[in-house]
Amino acid sequence: MVDLQKTYCHLTSCKPAVHPTNLGIPDKECLGLLGKNGAGKTTLFKMLTGDLSITKGNVYMKGKNIKTHLKTVQSMMSYCPQFDALHDVLTGRETLYLYGRLRGVQEGSLREVTETIIDFITLRPHEDKCTSHYSGGNKRKLSVGIAIIGNPHFIMLDEPTAGLDPVSRRSLWRCLHMIRSAERTLVLASHSMEECESLCTQIAIIKNGNILCLGSSQHLKTKFGQGYSVFLHAQQREGGSLTPLEPAVEFIIDCIGTEVKVFNAQPSYYQLQVPESTRLSRLFRILVSAKKNFDFRHFSVQQTSLEQVFLLLMKEQTAPQLAPKNNVCCHLSY
């Protein structure tokens, strides 16, 4: 993407949906797009597929210009939209047959390809039911199946696991891992931090059409993390009451300093943010001492999670302070 931009204009006012973006996605990578609703993820996908016109800038795939070689570019990509685009009167098998022919699968191998994908997306029990009778999760599975049929080089998935149960979600993750290992490039938009950490080699966090940061999950945690997350869990007394955690929290703050912040406070547990400058040996000594003195159930120490990084960046009022000038992001290896 080279200075890719989308602006919506109405009468005398214009609203940018995607600010000028420069981004390169190498082969065999999985890029995750994280952002709140309305951040511009779907608009970005629609520009890449040619569904929306590009206000400014350009997109190239394998050296082909999307404006002058749209059909060639489209033949190399596939797209699983956020909302299922299925034909209600067709069964799952018939839907895959239809899109397989559209994607150029040879007639002699179409049946074998369809059967493989049905097993791949675990849709076998529902293959001969009309899609109008599918649950939301099975519709998402079929939409992913449509996106991968024909062996496209570049696959875009807009919230592919929305509405899936945990078992189906894990199964689909395994499928996407296999697709990437087959030297395909994926771009995944999701609200699931766990999904992005499991699948994505690079993660871009988007806010108001700006890419705030780009890097691996570990790089983002290291760069934007707020130190360590400490969890204190209360002990349950006889009668069902819980031991109060406030005295233990005050003790920890007194020992380490006021830079310790309470991130989350519940009757059963407290989550504290401890600065990274605190030595782990000292932190554990203080926590062990607090447990002996105040008799809570147990504690744990974790690195700042991707979710906490995401929440931190969403709270920032001025995105350009975090983003490179002109929203320029390039692929880096960390």
Question: How would you describe this protein?
Answer:
The protein is of the alpha/beta class and about 325 residues long. Helix content is about 35%, strand content about 25%. The chain contains eleven helices and 15 strands. The strands form four sheets. The chain has a six-stranded mixed beta sheet with strand order 7-8-9-3-10-11, with helices on both faces. A hairpin with a 2-residue loop joins strand 5 and strand 6. The longest helix has 16 residues, at about 165-180. The radius of gyration is 24 Å and the shape is globular. The two termini are about 20 Å apart.
How are the SSEs placed, and which strands pair?
Layout: E1 2-10, E2 13-21, E3 30-35, H1 41-49, E4 56-58, E5 60-61, E6 64-65, H2 70-75, E7 77-80, H3 92-102, H4 107-120, H5 136-148, E8 154-158, H6 166-181, E9 185-190, H7 193-199, E10 202-207, E11 210-215, H8 217-224, E12 228-233, H9 246-256, E13 261-265, E14 269-274, H10 280-294, E15 298-303, H11 306-315
